[in-house]
Design brief:
By secondary structure, the protein is of the alpha+beta class. The chain contains three helices and two strands. Helices cover 30% and strands 9% of the residues. It has a two-stranded parallel sheet. It is globular and about 45 Å long.
């Protein structure tokens, strides 16, 4: 989001149970896609509920198991949607298969972000926008356009 969304959007990532470090294969995929790695760290979503935290307009949960978790009450009542993706850290198999799970998750998330960035957000009423956000979470991993 931070690569293709500005200046319209600024994104942060956090989790309900941070491990304390970014998974090495995540860093490998990001490096391979030319991201600067110094901006990434493991953090809890609780950082975004504290006074002085950035105002959130949208919150997307992405892990398959996140839909069953209790999410915090977000200040400002941002729109939210579940964009469930397999957690690549749970992948099994040989090293190439596990690396492919990380690459696939990156690709699927990038695809959904691209769809989101092409929504005419300013011209949609809140209910329509919510429906579109939910549709993105159900988007197949092939090229899809949600208008």
């Amino acid at each position: 989001m931070n690569r293709i969304g500005p200046p319209k959007f600024k994104a942060w990532s956090a989790g309900s149970m941070p491990k304390g470090e970014v998974h090495p294969l995540t860093l490998e995929v990001l490096r391979g896609n030319h991201f600067l790695l110094d901006q990434f760290r493991s953090k809890s979503w609780e950082e975004f509920t504290e006074p002085g935290a950035p105002k959130l307009d949208f919150v997307f949960t992405v892990c398959d198991t996140a839909a069953a978790e209790v999410c915090p009450i977000w200040p400002g009542q941002p729109m939210s949607a579940h964009w469930g993706l397999p957690d690549p850290a749970e992948a099994s198999g040989n090293p190439a298969q596990v690396a492919l799970a990380f690459a696939d998750t990156f690709r699927m998330l990038r695809h959904r972000i691209e769809i989101f960035l092409n929504l005419p957000v300013a011209s949609l009423d809140r209910l329509t926008l919510q429906r579109r956000l939910d549709e993105i979470g159900k988007a197949s991993n092939a090229a899809t356009t949600v208008t």
